[in-house]
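Lecture 7 notes: from sequence to structure.

We start with a single chain of 91 residues. Read the sequence below before looking at the structure.
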Amino acid sequence: MAPTLSDLEAELLRKVLNGEAFTMPSHQRVRLELLGVIRDRPSGIVVTPEGRRLATASLRHELSEDAQTPKDTLSRDSRGRRMPFQRKSIF
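Now the structure, written as tokens:
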């Protein structure tokens, strides 16, 4: 069974892959290590090939969801600002 990662875990993996600064709680580190997506070594955290695959797969999934988000139905002026008093009445 393939492990599933939360958004936070996927973001942490991407930060490790990119070499960005981050803080990882110890329980997250242990969970990711038990899932087999990272190795905690004396030289630092190393992402396994499975972790790379999961991090890039979740990134592609997020990008495809962003492309499908519908535009809001609020009226906007020529500068893109929302027009006032355009809400539908609930009564």
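The first strand starts at residue 38 and ends at 41. Keep this in mind for problem set 3.
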